[in-house]
Amino acid sequence: MVSRLKYPEFWLLAIGASLIAIHLVLLWKANNSSLLGMTFLFWAALSSLIWEKRHSFNLESGIFSSFFGLSLIALLLIKSISLTSFGVFLYFYPVIFAIGLALVASGFKGLKQYKGELFILFFLSVPKLLPSSLIDISLLTAKFATLILWYTGFEVTRKGTLIYLPAGSVEVYHGCSGMELIFQLLGLALLFLLMFPQTWKQKILISFVAATLAFIVNGLRVALMAVLVAQGQMGVFDYWHDGDGSLVFSLIAVLLFGLFCWFSLGQSELRNKDTTESSK
After folding, report:
1. Is 234 in the same domain as 261?
2. Do 164 and 272 lie in a common domain?
């Protein structure tokens, strides 16, 4: 054990595992079930990806880059200890932590080794980085949810982002528009493409399917919210809106996307097999 302490890889692993654990605990304390589930999936997949590539990384860092990286990590720890409200900090935490650890490991010049992994973590924080007025699909989500309700036989009308049923109404705000879930599934799509390289056409298709699935699943969730409000079931509404029920919809979206990726991977292997056999 003592001999292992001499290797920088051991310290990088220890720091990384500790900061990931702190982040997950903070998410658990914040009672953000949806973000907790998705973040756990991101961290698990990225850790596996980094571990597989560990022998190919150039672990050489300078004094300034190491100091800057450690300063970022120290600021994260101080902020984590002194938190009074969680806010957007939990969304920015993964990117800041990853950049800090990458600087300690490989310096500024070595950051390009982790560009794919850093970009994936960016998808967790991008919904909070972009102004709501820049990408606001609330109206589109309201239209889609209204269409679902109309097709399923409800007497529904819409005015802007307000969805009206005979006994109640809901308004689709930016936070409920589905942008967060869309970016999270796009991050999973990028993660899949890093682990299993595809052609450009397949990359575009996989990204499109990820965004579309997230939008459709969130639209179904909004439609359900409207029905629950109209029926006066506010306790059930709170469960599906802010409680563990919100995690179920994220899980459904991830599972559907996972099935699509599994099918896409199987088709790719089939095509590669056919190409190999035809070339013999």
Report:
1. yes
2. yes
Domain count for the chain: 2
State how beta strands 157-159 and 162-165 pair: antiparallel
Separation CA 246–CA 262 (nearest Å): 25
Tens of pLDDT, residue by residue over 136-173, are 889 999 999 999 999 988 889 999 889 998 888 888 88
pTM of the model: 0.77
Q: Who's near 30: CB < 8 A, 6+ residues apart?
A: 86, 90
Distance CA 238, CA 113 (A): 43
Query: What is the per-residue pLDDT across 190-240, written as a single tens digit (0 to 9) for each?
Result: 888 888 878 888 889 999 999 999 999 999 999 998 888 888 887 777 777
Under DSSP, the state recorded for 171 is: E
Q: What residues make up the domain containing 57?
A: 1-129
Nearest alpha carbon to residue 45 among 261, 268, 266, 272: 261
Tokens of 61: 């860092």
Residues 136, 83, single domain; the answer is no
DSSP letter (8 states) at residue 231: T
- Indicate the helix (H) or strand (E) that contains 230: helix 200-230
